[in-house]
From TrEMBL:
GO terms for molecular function: N-acyltransferase activity; phospholipase A1 activity; phospholipase A2 activity. This is HRSL1 enzyme. It comes from Mionectes macconnelli (McConnell's flycatcher). It comes from the Eukaryota. Residues 13-129 form the LRAT domain. The keyword Transferase applies. GO terms for biological process: N-acylphosphatidylethanolamine metabolic process. Keywords: Hydrolase, Lipid metabolism, Transferase. The lineage of its organism: Eukaryota, Metazoa, Chordata, Craniata, Vertebrata. The keyword tRNA-binding does not apply.
Length: 131
């Protein structure tokens, strides 16, 4: 597994460094995360001039953190906790589980993987990387 904090807690936000952008997941416990799998659904990774990624469909998947991370670096990053109150962990996990294997609209600037996991943790979609 790539480097990262080795003891995330259920409900933590996981930031995965993909080079030109950050991929986000929500830690569920027992080594699993929930994340929006835009690439699996034919959405290419963001690159300069890539307009095709602005609006597509993506799937919500529950997968092992080590499989999602691959060789990339990762860390727990609950950076919004300083100005947002996380929902109770049980509620975060229940909300996340309800989305597994569902399809969602993916919009790079308005409904991306960070928006999705912050909605689960805080009840509000937030993404600094597109602000």
């Amino acid at each position: 597994m790539a480097s990262g904090k080795q003891n995330p807690q259920p409900g933590d936000l996981i930031e995965i460094n993909r080079g030109v952008y950050q991929h986000w997941a929500l830690y569920m416990g027992d080594g699993y995360v929930i994340h929006l799998t835009a690439e699996d659904e034919g959405i290419p990774r963001p690159s300069a001039g890539s307009v095709a990624i602005l609006t597509r469909k993506a799937k919500v998947k529950k997968q092992l953190l080590k499989d999602v991370v691959g060789s990339n670096n990762w860390q727990v990053n609950n950076k919004y906790d300083s100005f947002r109150t996380p929902l109770p962990v049980k509620e975060i996990i229940e909300r996340a589980e309800s989305y597994v294997d569902t399809e969602r609209t993916y919009r790079l600037f308005y409904s991306n993987c960070e928006h999705f996991v912050t909605m689960l943790r805080y009840g509000e979609e937030i993404s600094e990387q597109v602000s």
